[in-house]
Amino acid sequence: MSGRDQGGTGLVRRLRDTYEVLAREAAKFGIVGAVAFVTDFGIFNLLRYAGPDGVGVLHHKPLTANVISVVTSIVVAWLGNRYWTFRHRRRASAPRELLLFFVMNGFGLLISLACLGFTYYVLDLRGPLASNISAKVVGVALGTLFRWWAYRRFVFVEELREEGWEAHPSHEQPQASAGPQVDDVRRSEARPGAA
What we know:
Blueprint: H1 3-49, H2 62-85, H3 94-122, H4 128-155, H5 157-162, E1 165-166, E2 186-187
Antiparallel strand pairs: 1-2
């Protein structure tokens, strides 16, 4: 077997191993996210609507109910991701990691609050369906998109560098105003067959 064939087999094995790790992480991440979503959705609706005549303890305070439900779901998600999904990737101290997780999710919460506040106070749609669609469907979807972008843009850049990825390969110069972006990463290793 030639050196080139062995390199190709090694590359295939490495890709397969990487895929298997990513598939396991994605499945676990999805399960943790689903549990956090059910926690968020359940607590929000209990606080707003679980009571006599469908009036919960925070029925007239939807933003407060949303903050409580989202913060609880953030803790659930952090615990699940730290101790199950990404337990093999932990590098930071738990308090620092939790702070970073809360900061990024805090912006996601603000997005959810903006959607709910707009629906409740501007459009004057105050029923359970409108509240859940604005906060738990639209708000969660937009917040998730933001968090995905923010994690890739700000949080995981150093971890990718440690694994052999560069934000800007040496043959490309970054623009003066642009910081390293994970979308721009490439392996720093030579490509198979490259001189």
